[in-house]
DNA sequence: ATATTATTGCAATTAAGTCGCAATAATTGA
DNA sequence: TCAATTATTGCGACTTAATTGCAATAATAT
């Protein structure tokens, strides 16, 4: 399963790189002006996740949002224990820098972290 | 919109009260042996949420889970800043007691907190 | 007992995401 | 450079979670 470079893949990547917030499938689809099939975008994003290029956030609106793994790319222990903030007004999903550590009961092993706080951001408040 | 007491509402409430973990729609439906319509359960749970009887957790499997607001019932500031743990093996969603405080950038106002960690719990690990 | 209206059941619908499969197009190697 | 291999795409159908409209039912108040 060696990965190939395709125009669409590159386009999605550059959109994510240029974005100042996490993006959903619809947002990407819209920005690509429907020149690409929905399923293709889903698949590209899933591959990015599998490859650790991007991380996935399931927001409390039930949608998945994706953001580039910028800072965490170099780290060996690839953890995403930080929160995301979803603005109920402008519906932007942005990354809150602060890493959070939750100590689990003994015997528990964490595999995935998903923390979302929704509310109103400063520019909408 | 004054609330009425119905057998189904009481049944759902007692199931939630007796559960040691958060419950999803399907789980409730199954425990009620399909004697109640799906939509009814959804509506009852949404009313419970609106009334602050129950809190809703959106887990990273894309499903909603509901748990009684036990400890937090008496508090005036009704905050749910605690994590839930979803076991990937037994798929139980349980409440992690520890309250977490995330400090937002200035000008941000939090409305909702949704924190889920998934992994393997002690009895499955 | 009766009127009011919240709640229910049913069916249809929305929305997010996935999947199978044939067609297309990156890559690899001669 | 060209052909072979196979990852990727597009299309459509499908799955799953949850919501909604509406008529029928039943809990409450008078």
What would you note in describing this structure?
The structure is a homodimer of 125-residue chains. Chain A has 125 residues and is α+β, with helices and mostly antiparallel strands. Chain A has one domain: Arc Repressor Mutant, subunit A (Orthogonal Bundle). Helix content of chain A is 26%, strand content 30%. Chain A contains three helices and six strands, in the order H-E-H-H-E-E-E-E-E. Chain A has a three-stranded antiparallel beta sheet. In chain A, strands 5-4-6 form a three-stranded mixed beta sheet, with no helix packed on it. Chain A is globular, with a radius of gyration of 15 Å. Chain A starts with 6 loop residues before the first helix and ends in a 5-residue tail after the last strand. The model of chain A has no long low-confidence stretch (mean pLDDT 90). The first copy, chain A, binds a DNA duplex (30 and 30 nucleotides) through helix 3.
Distance between termini of chain A? 47 Å
- Classify the secondary structure makeup of chain A into a structural class: alpha+beta
Strand content of chain A: 25-35%
Task: Give the topology string of chain A: H per helix, E per strand.
Answer: HEHHEEEEE
CATH superfamily of chain A: Winged helix-like DNA-binding domain superfamily/Winged helix DNA-binding domain
How many helix segments of chain A? 3
Main beta sheet of chain A: strand number and arrangement? 3 strands, antiparallel
Q: Using only CA atoms, what is the Rg of chain A?
A: 15 Å
> Spans of chain A with pLDDT under 50 lasting ≥5 residues?
none
CATH topology-level name of chain A:
Arc Repressor Mutant, subunit A
Shape of chain A: globular
| Average pLDDT number of chain A | 90
> Biggest interface: chains and residue counts?
A-B, 32 and 32 residues
Percentage of residues in helical conformation of chain A: 25-40%
Total beta-strand segments of chain A: 6
CATH class of chain A reads Mainly Alpha
């Amino acid at each position: 399963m060696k990965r190939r470079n395709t125009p669409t893949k590159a386009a999605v990547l550059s959109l994510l790189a240029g974005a100042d917030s996490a993006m959903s499938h619809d947002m990407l689809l819209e920005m690509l002006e429907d020149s690409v099939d929905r399923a293709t975008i889903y698949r590209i994003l899933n591959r990015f996740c599998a490859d650790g290029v991007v991380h996935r956030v399931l927001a409390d609106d039930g949608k998945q949002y994706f953001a580039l793994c910028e800072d965490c790319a170099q780290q060996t222990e690839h953890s995403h224990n930080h929160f995301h903030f979803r603005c109920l007004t402008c519906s932007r999903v942005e990354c809150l820098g602060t890493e959070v550590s939750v100590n689990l009961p003994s015997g528990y092993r964490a595999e995935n972290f998903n923390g979302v706080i929704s509310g109103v951001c400063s520019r909408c408040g």
